[in-house]
Design a protein that fits this description.
- By secondary structure, the chain is an alpha/beta fold.
- Helix content is 34%, strand content 29%.
- The longest helix has 17 residues.
Amino acid sequence: MIELVNVTKVYKVGSSKVLALDNVSLKIPTGSFYAIMGPSGSGKTTLINIIGLLDKPSKGKVLIDGIDVGNLPEKKINHIRMKKIGFVFQLFHLIPWLTVLQNVEVPMMIASVPKNVRRKRAIELLKMVGLENRIHHRPTQLSGGEQQRVAIARALANNPEIILADEPTGNLDSKTGHEIMEALAKLNRYEHKTVIVVTHDPEVASYANTIVYLRDGKVQRIEVR
């Protein structure tokens, strides 16, 4: 369970203050598939960054499995983020000078997983996303869709419970975007991962069982499908 309680986020921009999130409360059950929608500037990315422990609220609480992460030391927060959360970004963020296999191994290297174990898991994950024949290629030798599938495999490296995807189809054509969303839907359906997708695209949001609509940093409405 992920729970946000009265979360407010204010950014300082020079002498001004920008209210990115305004008193947001939200409960996301384990194993659910949520989409977060809203116009540009509505607070979508800020919300997913706070859920992913990449940012902290100015006010309010974030609880993961009942633990108030705001009261934890940074080392413990980093450990939770590394073990429980996998990230998929619009721009892939693959390391260009590493092979596909090495990119998937990176989170496991950070987690001090032995080389033989991480190599075996990376190969298994790349087979799962259909890229077992591309493991020695570098990202620049792959299509956008293939790069995003590598990013999904990398997100799963440490077997996290939560997958956060920020505009994961934003740089892809509609057919490839559909394939990426099908891959995320299967992770939710068969691996029981909690999947949270930020999107402006209603077609992408249609894969979710719950859609949260944001506007001006506030939850406008929640649609349960």
